[in-house]
Amino acid sequence: MNAEDVKNKLIHNCNKFTGYRIADCFLCNTWDRWGLNKETGLFNEINQKTRIPLGKFTYEKWPDSIAGQYSYRNNFKKNQDLNLLLDIILEKYPNTHEKNITSVHLRIGDVLAQKQEAHTSRFLDPSFYSKQEFNNNTNEIFIVFGIHYNCLIDESLDYVENVKKHIEKKTNKNCKIRSTTPDEDFVFMLFSKYFIPSKSGLCKVINRLKPLLENK
To answer: Which of 121, 150, 128 is closest to 41 using CA atoms?
Structure first.
């Protein structure tokens, strides 16, 4: 995809998946603190009458999604059932197998907007990726990213391109970029043989799932 195609895809997914958060539906520790506005899908609304727990919001809006099914089949409880989550993934993607590729996850959008504030610890400078170990036997390297809200799209794409240059210089390999639906990107990274995480809840969930996946 060229830059314009990527930008259009990000905007499309922003509009379609605002408020969709796989990791937060699983990690659960944000449910009480992160009520959602039923109309906008945005967090931190003041009017308590318009707030709905994240899991219920997710199931109502995306009932067939990984996060929606997990929330529903876990009875909207605040526990973390890794086996249930993995079962749902394998049911939805039964023919998916490990690929000899490297996936690199990036956090963009709101993290770039707040890198000097609350999310400072979650922002990774592009030079960070020059210090990572990349396996030379990997077939391909993919930079994977998405965005929760329609903000700082152009700045985010500049950041992605900057990271891409650092990785290509480090590995002497061409990197591909990938940004599809949240579920598809999540599964793509989970089934990548090599994974370089960002500082995100999504990556924490992937790293906890990978050992279970090896035993399936």
So the answer is: 150
